[in-house]
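Q: What would this chain look like folded?
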Amino acid sequence: MKVLRLSKDCLEQTLAHLRGAYPEEGVGLWLGRAGRVERVLPLKNIHPTPWLRYRAEPQAVLRALQGAEAEGMELLAIYHSHPQGPAEPSSTDVAEAYWRVPYVIFDLKRGIYRAYRLPEGEEVGLELL
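A: My prediction, written as structure tokens:
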């Protein structure tokens, strides 16, 4: 996938979740079909130091993926915030990139968001519909 497509509504849902998690890092999933985000699924950050890192509860991720599959959707991206920026992967983001989907990083301080295929660091395009 070279481009992720999402509606303004999905972007606003994502931003509302991440702003609500501030000053902690927020995390969630983008689900959909054929590269188009159809559902934003906010998750709870259970990391012991959530203002520095994120970790989604594994059972919540599993339930989300099972539900998406039952509806004919797939995991398109994992999003999270860097409350103070930047919208670039940290060394921890790269080291802990287990999923073969884009990771979308939101710099809440500057209002910037970018997507990357990790651990390679290749940027993925984001198209707002």
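The chain has three helices and seven strands.
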